[in-house]
Amino acid sequence: MTTTQQFDLVLKNGHVVDPANNIDGRFDVGIKYGKIASVINNINLDMADDTIDVEGQIVMPGHIDTHAHVSSVFGNDTNRAYGHAMLVESGTTTALDLAGNPTLMAEGMLQRGAGLNVASLMGLVPHSTISEDDPRPSVVRDVINNTKKQGGIGVKLLGGYHPFTPEASSNVVKAANEQMAWVAFHVGTKDSGSDMTGLREVPDITDNGRLHVAHINSYTRGMVDEPHEEVREALTLIERMRSQWVTEAYLAQINGTNGLCDENGDVVYNVAQNCLKARGYPTTDKGIKASLLDGYGSALTARGGRVITVTGEEAVKIWESAATNASLSYPVNPPTSAFSLATAKYDDETFKVDAISTDGGSLPRNVAIQRTMALVAFGALTISEAVIKLSYSPSRMMGLLNKGQLSEGADADITVVNPRTGKATMSLVAGELIMLNRRVVGKGGTWLILEEGRKAAESKGLPYEIINLEESKMYENWN
Ligand SMILES: [Zn+2]
Question: How far is the CA of 465 from the centre of ligand 1 (A)?
Answer without folding.
Answer: 24
